[in-house]
Model the fold of this input.
Amino acid sequence: MMLVRSGTKPTPVTPVAVVAEHVPVKIAARPAKKWPVAKGNPPSVENRSPTELRLDDSYQRSTDNGASRALIKRIATGWDWRMCLPLVVSKRDDGSLWVIDGQHRLAAALLRGDIPFLPCVIGVYGSVADEAAMFVAMNRARKPMNRLDDFHAALASGDSEAIEVAKLITDAGFTVSRKTGSQSWVSGEVAFTSAIAKVLRKHGPTVCALALTTMAEAFPGEVLNAGSSMFLALTKLSISPPDGFDHDRMFRALLKRNQREWASFLNEVKGGGDERGLQLRKVLLMAYEEEPEVADAEG
Done:
């Protein structure tokens, strides 16, 4: 049996969406002279047929790859008008319409064949070069959602996998972090929700729960500097343990070092994810072999 300290586990709390009361906000006008002159002319917002819209291969990314084809099919299969943001479109001198941003939505609409129009923000650009410059600027300015923001949003939406991952974390006595930067982590927080979800999908909740509980008991009050790697290493040991593997003996070996010390064994690992987990698994097994069996220790 795994050594587990006595005590009660926290009761997981089902996420509840909190809707703030709408309070009108008065925005004070600022003198225009403090701001640079706005560029370009205001665009028009129009609904246009997908068959009217064209793509310029000179600056658009290729969709002739597995990832893009899968994305287009996913958008087409789960088409939701509430997620169809306006496409950014350039109107050229001859009146033709060229998509700067939104080519996957366009491809999905064309694939379906039953989407009569797409909302478009149509502007006039000076040249193809100007369109390409806008394409680059828009993609560089776009801030992707980080994995923890994505997880918390999924949790709030009632996503079943996110709820199960959150329950595994809270049942072990941890909380889910809101910050991805390791410098901002505090003790008792878990940021490696993606690693837990991956193991959960492939090996089930028992393996995840054992690894998380072991970490909670071995490193109380510590920041999980090597949290993801330690979790993966422990789950890999549970999935394919060596002959005669003793969880209690492994637990005693874990207690010999703190999280920061275990993390130091990963300083030279170039890869991430599974490679770091495999490396730490090797280190844990070496520590396990050095740890005497209970009978030897008592003798």
The first strand starts at residue 44 and ends at 48. DSSP finds twelve helices and seven strands in the chain.
